[in-house]
Amino acid sequence: MLMRTDPFRELDRLTQQLMTSSGTWSRPSTMPMDAYREGDEYVIALDLPGVSTDAIDIDVERNMLTVKAERRPATKADDVQMELSERPLGVFSRQLMLADTLDTEHITADYDAGVLTLRIPIAERAKPRKIAIGEGAGRKQISG
Q1: What is the pLDDT of residues 91-118, one digit of tens each?
Q2: pTM, whole model, 2 decimals?
Q3: 29-42, pLDDT tens digit by residue?
Q4: Where in the sequence is the signal peptide annotated (predicted)?
Q5: Which residue ranges make up each domain of the chain?
Q6: C-alpha span between 104 and 119 (Å, rounded)
């Protein structure tokens, strides 16, 4: 139920990810994710290892879900000399256009072992319903 709005935006995102290892507030890096349906809800899992919960911002405006996070460098003593630094730092962001069939009023978020998991229920109006055929000439009643 996730809708892609611009195929070129995904290409730009991948190019940006390959070109830079750290993001800034004006040009954030992307975060890897999985999205799947589990029963009557959609689940989005985003990898954010090493990010504290107070550095994660989740926002929904209309049907646009935005997740931003910042991984800050660990504080080191003055006598520490960095030999190798491969872990990406900076700002990470992901925007997803959610379908109208999802209930954006009841999104829940959990953060465990570096994975942010968002659960978005399917709206009642989008669930299948039975239509009963009543007595009389072509009268129908919707039950749900």
Answers
A1: 889 999 999 889 999 999 999 999 999 9
A2: 0.68
A3: 778 999 999 999 99
A4: none
A5: 23-73+87-126
A6: 10
